[in-house]
Structures are given as C-alpha cells and as structure tokens.
Amino acid sequence: MSSTAITDSPAPWLRDNCPCDTCRDPRNGQKLFQITDLPPGLAVGSVREVPGATGAGWEVVWEPDGHRSLYPADWLDAHAPTGGARGTGGDGRTEADKELWAAADLAGRLPDASWDAYVGDRAVRIHALESVRRLGFVLLREVPRRDRMVLDVAETFGFVRRTNYGELFEVRVEPDPNNLAFTGALITPHTDNPYRDPVPTVQLLHCLRNEARGGDSGLVDGFHAAALLRREDPRAFDVLTRVPVEFSFTDARTELRAQRPLIDVDPLGRIREVRFNNRSIGTLHESAPVLAEFYAAYRRFGELLLRPALRLDFRLAPGDCLIFDNTRLLHARTAFAESGARHLQGAYADLDGLGSALAVLRRDGAAA
Ligand code: OGA
Ligand code: ZN
Ligand code: ZN
Known about the structure:
By secondary structure, this protein is α+β, with helices and mostly antiparallel strands. 28% of the residues lie in helices and 25% in strands. It contains eleven helices and 17 strands. The radius of gyration is 25 Å and the shape is globular. The protein starts with a helix and ends with a helix. The structure holds N-oxalylglycine (OGA) and zinc ion (2 copies). One zinc ion is lined by residues 18, 20, 22-23, 67, 69. One zinc ion binds next to loops.
C-alpha cells in the first residue's frame, strides 16, 4: 500500500473516520464531534508511514488545525474508496444478498434445526439465523409445546414486537374472529401486517397442535416472484415499485393504516421489500389511468405468486416453529376442518435484532 489511499480519499471522509481518542470515545467508539465542527478548508498537510504494535499505519497531520490521525493500514485496505468497485455494497436486505428459491430448489433440504441443537450449539444457531437471512426462513423442530414458548424462541435472537394482537397471537378458530387467520378458511400467500408502520420484519409461528384435516402450510419467495415479474413484465414491476398502496386493519379497538408500494426497491433498484395481502389492501386513490395500470400489474404479480412451482408446501408438526422474513416471504395455509384441533401461537420480531444476534455469535465465536 502506498500513501495514495490517503491522498486519493476525500478529506472530509478521511477525517470523519479518524479513530483517535478525541474524535471517538474510547469506551464505546461513539463519535465525539459533528460534521459542522470540521474546519473549513480541511486538507491533508502531511502523510507518513508509521510502524505500529498491531500493524503498520499511516499518520496524517491535518491542515489547517494540526490534528493528527493514525489510520491502520488494514483499515485503509478495507475501507478506502480507491479499491475499484465501491458503493454497491448493501445492508444484507436486498436481493443482492439473498439466495432466491423456487419450491424445487428446497425439496428435501428445508433449512431446519432441532431446538436442542439450536440452543446448545453455536454453529447450529449461526446456521439457522443465517438461513433466515439467506433463504428467508428456518424451521426449528421439537420446540417444547408450551404455552407462550414462541416468545422464548423470539428472545433467542431478538425482541418481541408487541402489537394490538398482544405479545403473541393465537392462531386457532375463534368464535368472533377479528382476522380470517383465526378461522378455518384457506389463506392465500401473504405477508403479515402490511398496515403497520414499520411492518414487523420477522414472524414466528409455533405449532402446538395440528390434528385438523387440512391446514397445510405454504411459503413463497416474494423476492424470486418479484424478480420473475421484472423479467416477464418490466413495466408491471415498475408500476408496483412506484404506486403507494394503502393497507388497513380495523376492529373495535384498533385502526391501523400504512401506505407503501407492493415492491420496494433500494436506490440502485434492487428488490428490498415485498408486501402483499389481499385481506387488508385498502382503496387506492390515484388517477384512472394509474389505477388501471396498477390493477393489471397487481393481478399479474398475484398470478405469479400463485404459481405452484414457486410454492413450497409442507405441514407443520406439533413442536415446529417457523421463523421467517416477513419483508420477503409470503406464507399461506390450506383450509382446515374447524371441527379438528389446530393451534399455532404467533409472534413478531425484527430483522435488525436477528442480524445483531448473528453478528455477536460470529464475533464471539471468532474470539473464542
Ligand atoms: C397468520 C397466518 C397461517 C396458518 O396467522 O398470519 O397466516 O398456518 N397463519 O394458520
Ligand atoms: Zn481525531
Ligand atoms: Zn399470516
């Protein structure tokens, strides 16, 4: 490495990343200055290579304030904007960092783990959480069939998101259901709660009993479906990324609404979130031509999501707990006989907590 990593870097960027103890609190690494505190006319005054106890580095003396910064060489290697393709990295949420799948891709290799191994073995837990990030889900098996156990499962990787349904929700036949999920009706592929802002990004469904005829589960990779739509009908894809859709939920105590496009893309156009729920989509208020275009595209996407090749079918056994990315996967179930016993407990959590748990498991594993 030469000093060009320093001299080719924009001065405010380099200075903003000064690791010294006056720029960052050494106890927590948090930055101690504001961007507006940097002197006008900031420039690198001098650069020299210095040996260091933990590896070589480069010392910069800044103009006009004489501040000294010491950048480890390996930090510059990893971060300096001189190394070719930069700026296309993501946060792991877009299609760029996923393994998109159709049903046949996962036949015979459902990502799963037994509860005991998940709890007791760091590598198994890392692999399970990684499956949620990469494939959108994991199926934990032999999870104790205890009331409220789904909350303990959520707490292994994150924080329960409490909602108007409570800390958890009971998926079983209710006498006066405020949601079709709480009947024996067939439920077509959907994401949950698109009427919340922010939407819950992780969902858990823990099966306590499943003795009813019917009530089989289905999962569809919404990113894969959206990518197919983009290939088969780019115009429809584009419409679904641009038209805001109102979703709503109302019951005696609650009135929730949120507006988002069905397909969210990042600034580079990569698929980042999908929401789709025929039960809670509201009335759109757009011009007639936009409505006509939207409905054609919405139908097209809906048809795609129903393609049997895309839908992974399986049956939840008592003790199974499905953990999935609710911004990507759509879930479904077949109708079941209301006379049979079927009982799931569901809860919501979030992907940021899951990502943190995974990073800490890896960090601690590397340190061990
Ligand atoms: C739900 C749901 C699926 C099922 O509760 O959100 O979609 O298998 N349930 O009952
Ligand atoms: Zn500094
Ligand atoms: Zn659902």
